[in-house]
Each structure stands twice: as C-alpha cells, then as structure tokens.
Task: structure prediction
Amino acid sequence: MSYRLRYLRRGSHELGPVRVTATDVFGLFEREVVVDDADTVTAYPVCHPVPARFRRGLYADDALGVSRQRGQFDRLREYVRGDALRDVHWPTTAKRDEIVVKEFAAETRRGRVSIAGETTAACEDADALAEAAASLAVALLDDGVPVELTLPAGSVSAEPGPRGRRAVLELAAVTGPGPVAVDYPDVRVIGDGDGATYRTGGRSVSVADLRATGSDDAPTTPAAPVQTRPEVDGP
Result:
C-alpha cells in the first residue's frame, strides 16, 4: 500500500513508525500491525517567480561585455528593455503574443551572483527568508547564472542545472533564523516579522511588492520535496 503526503512545512522531517489496521472485506475482523521502519524527507520552500527586470539588473553589467561576442544560438527568452530589435524572434513572438528574443551562448556566460540571507534579531521565523532566497537563487540558476548562497544554516556554491538547484533548495529547506557574516554580497535578503526584503545596489525592495508588480515569466513550479528513500508504505 502507498499513500501520498502533502508537506505543510519546509524542513527535514521523519516519517514512521506506521500503524496499519487491516480488515476483511466484510469488516468483521481486523488486525493491527506496526511497521517499525522510519524514513526522512526534505520539504523545500515554495519558489515564487522573480521579475526578469530585477534578475537581469544583478548581472547585466557582466553581460554587456560578452553580449557583443555573438556566437551560437542558445535559447529564447522574454524581451527586456535594452535588448536589440534584431534579436527579436518574430515567429515565437506572434504565437505567444509577447516579445521573445534570441539569446546567444556568449550571453549566458555570466558572472557569479552572491546572495546572503539573514533575519532581524527580533525575527524567530525564517520561512519568509527561505522562500525569498530560494526563489531568487533558483530563478538566477534558470537564467544560466551561477550563484553563491549563504544562509544561517551554511553556504553553497551552485552552478546552473539540477544539481545546483537541489543544493540551493536543500540549504533553504533547513535554514533557521540568524545573521550571516558576508560583506558586500550582490543581494542581501532580510527576513523579518512582516516578510522579506531584497537589498541590492543601495536600494531595498519588498519581496511582496516585487511579486505584486507582476511578471511576464512563466510561473516557477514549487519545488517537489526530495525523499531519501521510496515512499513509506502505510494505510
């Protein structure tokens, strides 16, 4: 027997032992069995979309130097102010009813973006911090940008790809509140009792306000929890 779990809280959780009650088809007899096995699962924080204009502002300066070295076509992406008209992919633009541009391989070799996340002294809940930090880190990795993420639970150096995404999400899943000792990160994520804030380039942006402005990005699918073993059998 198998059953599917819905995780209500991020973090590392233990499952088991499992109590199973078996009955006959008529419901006249029943037998109780305890499956004494235990298992652990890691539930990731939910990842929300981050507008492209905010993401590109973190690595646009690095992109300017290599964007002139136009080479092999790499992928399609949404239009961002400043993109050349010659790069518009008109067939896809017509189908999607939004401007889509071609990106070349040279343009995807960005510099690494450092993210440092912490909570204020009065904040005892790191959920808002974990969601905000993971959302930004995963969005940058999807853009092809390497990420250095530091949270109270530790730090990871992540490259674009499934392994990098997993490293970022696992760290965000288990982080708690507290400060970090990182000087001058590209982005500092501050979690407090009212939510989280991105601080970069001398400005602060509320994560809630950033989401409210909307984004043309496709929604980021909430990360699925990772199970260290197959599903635990149970009622």
Residues 62-70, 215-235 have pLDDT under 50 and may be disordered. The chain is about 25% helix and 30% strand. The chain has one domain: 1-48+110-228.
